[in-house]
Write a structure and sequence with these properties.
Length: 147
């Protein structure tokens, strides 16, 4: 029988020490290395207590459009949010739900097919203004509608 090499022994010791023992002692990735992903697709499953404070606020709607441009949302969702490599935000039916709370959750938590999580990177206040702008699309209240 062949004697194991020192590298093989070291590997076995490292692997066995990482996979056994109390869960508290196991090494986990740094919080910034974790990529949060939102809920599974389907009808609105978000908490109904989330209320958009800017629903009918014209100034917030216009500011939301500016944030949409500044955060380069159109880089994925296309000009005037008509779709690109990301889905159109002008559609009526949405995979993760189209309520204010569901859209807020999609922006804040991210989604599994490429939507990054913006929660913690931009304030909730700005996310609500983005939601207000997004919900103004296809309406008479839309700032700068497509021609």
């Amino acid at each position: 029988m062949r004697k194991p090499s020192p590298i093989t022994l070291l590997f076995c010791v490292v692997v066995s020490s990482c996979t056994h023992g109390p869960a508290e002692e196991r090494i986990s990735p740094a919080p910034e290395a974790r990529i949060p992903v939102g809920p599974i697709p389907g009808f609105d499953k978000t908490t109904p207590t989330m209320v958009n404070p800017y629903t009918e606020d014209d100034a917030a709607r216009n500011e939301g459009r500016l944030w949409f441009i500044r955060f380069n949302c159109s880089g994925c969702h296309g000009g005037h949010a008509g779709g690109g490599m990301g889905p159109s935000l002008r559609d009526v039916d949405w995979v993760y739900g189209g309520s204010d709370a569901a859209v807020f959750s999609s922006i804040s938590e991210g989604r599994s097919k490429g939507m990054p999580s913006w929660g913690g990177r931009i304030p909730d206040d700005q996310i609500w203004k983005l939601v207000t702008y997004i919900h103004s699309l296809r309406t008479a209240n839309e700032p700068d509608p497509p021609t």
